[in-house]
Amino acid sequence: MSTHTVSPHWDIFCAVVDNYGDIGVTWRLARQLAKEYQLDIRLWVDDLHSFAHILPQLNPALTEQCFSGVTILPWREPLPQAWQPGAVLIEAFACELPNSVKHTLQQRKQQNGALPCWLNLEYLCAETWVDGCHGLPSMQASGIDKYFFFPGFTPKTGGLICEKNLFAERDRWQADISNRRALFQQLGLTGIADDDRVISVFSYETPALPALCQQWQQTDRPVHVLLPKGRSLNSLTDWLPCPPETVKPGQTFTQGNVSLHILPMTDQEGYDRLLWSCDMNIVRGEDSFLRAQWAAKPFIWHIYPQDEDYHLIKLQAFMALYCHNLAPEIGRYWQALNMAFNQGHPVEVALNWQQLEKTTTALQQHAKQWPIDAINPADLASRLVQFVRK
Questions:
Q1: Is the Cα torsion angle 210, 211, 212, 214 positive or negative in sign?
Q2: Distance linking the first and last C-alpha atoms of the chain
Q3: What is the pTM of this model?
Q4: Which residue in the list 47, 272, 286, 287 is annotated as catalytic?
Q5: Distance, CA of 336 to CA of 235 (rounded, Å)
Q6: Which bin fits 153, alpha (ψ -120 to 50), beta or left (φ > 0)?
Q7: How many angstroms from the chain centroid is the CA of residue 288?
Q8: Contacts by 248-255 with C-beta closer than 8 Å and gap 24+?
Q9: Contact call for residues 117 and 3 (beta carbons, < 8 A)
Q10: Are 203 and 172 in contact (CB under 8 A)?
Q11: Burial category of 325 from C-beta neighbours within 10 Å (exposed 0-12, middle 13-18, buried 19 and up)
Q12: CB-based burial of residue 301 (10 Å sphere; 0-12 exposed, 13-18 middle, 19+ buried)?
């Protein structure tokens, strides 16, 4: 592996596929590498408008800008500035690098020049085959090796994105109820008492959502559902007095004991605090999925749908790990709830929710312990730096 390069900087290329998932992961990683390892990071993104939703200070019209120590560049053809190889080149989630970048790499190879460590950062996966594939090289047509870097849950994988001080910050936040009150006030959420149940929803369309709202109506305790404008609302048209596309942040729609609150967009730190402040989180994609785990609260994962339902295999692989140290009966209901939610089976969703209601304390205790076990023993950024240094 070549480690002698002219410039020490790292390049990360990201193509936005699922709005906030891909860019969410790469942005967190870029910031952590810059902050905790003082690395010169250049993040190339093909959709700065989507990026701006989670980084409101970003100006999509600029050809170069810097936030949190990371240089952000628009990825378009041709690139707005000539690409210069650095120490590391990361293509996030198998995105196809620009031809000009590949051509430059080939030229360097032919001239026996220094080459970056070329990595393909894959999607997070809990399947067992990842252990054997993480870190393997793949010879490209240029004659240069590209290495597969798989985030995962075992010591043989690339680990999980987690900032070093995240758990301490979360614990401090959750220890003081005034933090939750202040956050809800900041978001324009009203009418939420301290002992009301609060559930965040960031999902794709599914008939499971109205089934859960129906279920929550039957409880004695008020339930507040916090959700942004977007795909979740498309499943709740019967609960809204107007078309989903016309609702506005700050609006609340109440039926019986259930209130739907429309959230404003927030940055990643704000979303973390929202997850920390809810009793239950329903999340989608990869970035939100992991942050829900780090929130130490029970959650449902609405995984990105794939052809031939392969996403359900990924879901089952994760659930097997998550439930390893969970009481079998609780684990069975939690897995059944997640499967039913992802398959859009409203009756099964309601039935398994009812069963889990009887185990709230045990499920909460497990959610608190899981992040400590899952980080085992180092985070993704640490393992990435170690891999490059070898």
A1: positive
A2: 8
A3: 0.94
A4: 286
A5: 21
A6: alpha
A7: 3
A8: 249/188, 250/188, 252/189, 252/190, 252/191, 255/213, 255/217
A9: yes
A10: no
A11: exposed
A12: buried
Catalytic annotation, pick one of 22, 122, 272, 287: 22
Give the C-alpha separation, 302 to 281, whole Å. 11
Q: Is 286 a catalytic residue?
A: yes
Take residue 134 and report the two structure tokens written for it: 């993480």
Residue found under tokens 């942004």: 228
Q: Clarify whether 22 is annotated catalytic.
A: yes
Of 127, 84, 147, residue with least CA distance to 303? 127
**Cα atoms in the 13 Å half-sphere on the side-chain side of 337:** 23
Q: One digit per residue, pLDDT tens: the chain, 390 residues?
A: 444 446 899 999 999 986 677 899 999 999 999 999 999 999 999 999 999 999 999 999 999 999 999 999 999 989 998 999 999 999 999 899 999 999 999 999 999 999 999 999 999 999 999 999 999 999 998 899 999 999 999 999 999 999 999 999 999 999 999 999 999 999 999 999 999 999 999 999 999 999 999 999 999 999 999 999 999 999 999 999 999 999 999 999 999 999 999 999 899 999 999 999 999 999 998 899 999 999 999 999 999 888 999 999 999 999 999 999 999 999 999 999 999 999 999 999 999 999 999 998 999 999 999 999 999 888 999 999 999 998
Distance CA(104)–CA(299), nearest Å, equals: 45
Q: SS3 of 79, please?
A: coil
Q: How many helices (H) and strands (E) does the chain have?
A: 14, 14
Q: Are 121 and 89 in contact (CB under 8 A)?
A: no
Q: Which two tokens stand for residue 311?
A: 């996403």
Q: Round to whole Å and give the CA distance between 71 and 171.
A: 31
